[in-house]
Known about the structure:
Blueprint: E1 3-12, E2 19-23, E3 26-29, H1 35-50, H2 55-68, E4 69-71, E5 75-81, E6 89-95, E7 102-106, E8 109-115, H3 118-125, E9 126-131, E10 134-135, E11 140-141, E12 147-152, E13 162-171, H4 172-175, H5 179-183, H6 198-206, E14 222-229, E15 234-235, E16 239-242, E17 249-252, E18 262-263, E19 267-269, E20 273-275, E21 283-284, E22 287-289, E23 293-295, E24 299-301, E25 307-309, E26 314-315, E27 319-323, E28 329-331
Parallel strand pairs: 3-12, 6-8
Antiparallel strand pairs: 1-13, 1-14, 2-3, 4-13, 5-6, 5-13, 7-8, 9-12, 10-11, 15-16, 16-17, 17-27, 18-25, 19-20, 21-26, 22-25, 23-24, 27-28
Amino acid sequence: xxxxxxxxxxxxxxxxxxxxxxxxxxxxxxxxxxxxxxxxxxxxxxxxxxxxxxxxxxxxxxxxxxxxxxxxxxxxxxxxxxxxxxxxxxxxxxxxxxxxxxxxxxxxxxxxxxxxxxxxxxxxxxxxxxxxxxxxxxxxxxxxxxxxxxxxxxxxxxxxxxxxxxxxxxxxxxxxxxxxxxxxxxxxxxxxxxxxxxxxxxxxxxxxxxxxxxxxxxxxxxxxxxxxxxxxxxxxxxxxxxxxxxxxxxxxxxxxxxxxxxxxxxxxxxxxxxxxxxxxxxxxxxxxxxxxxxxxxxxxxxxxxxxxxxxxxxxxxxxxxxxxxxxxxxxxxxxxxx
Length: 338
């Protein structure tokens, strides 16, 4: 069953911190929202808003989203013009590496891809907040716990609203399905207000998401702006999409930068089984374990994190990759049927 391609636009309402690493007392943020982060936020929101919130329901929703959706990574963007007489909106989407600027148009919205030096990206979007836990009984700060949290700001350094823009692929057979059929559950298990089409519920919960960490402080809140049918041509960052009857295949040109994590070592996916890594003669650059948390009755660190090439690494040759579970780019073997 083919996937339908959509472009998602969210507006950032509060600071966004997606944990990258800790260096001394600085907790660094990623420059993007990984597909797994969006998947987790949608899983939590649908389960809490539309179902009972029981742990088994998280599993049902998460598995169905993994099966029927493919997540792209979300990247910071600013709007450079609103709708004019031609009903065209224009966004600049930023990436922290140098490359030739490019554009694409999705419906009435034009996207310009701005590739800038990491320092310029950090200056425009990143800020910091310093804090220290307090021992409430003694009313003093905890010794040695001073820390600074880096975040993407809801307003850029040049005073423009910040958006998050990325791709989403949904299987054609579920686009028009209702939520009950999408989840394959009894209608009585759904909240009355959620007995709607899956796409309608999806856009509603996107208006009430929290992404990343520090949620208790109100960080990571977003507002749904738009979801636009794209149906082919290019993915975000000017990446070519290769038509396929059952998969989402991206082709990165020689010298083009990855816009998501690519699998660097064999990994056991919770849905797809054993996934093959991308060979090291195709991509060069840094690798990292893509750590995070998973819900199995309670939240706990991922026990088997995938080892990945980080976004921004270059492809040494023209490389076709499949968008797999949680937005990971995995090895694609060419097929005569594709």
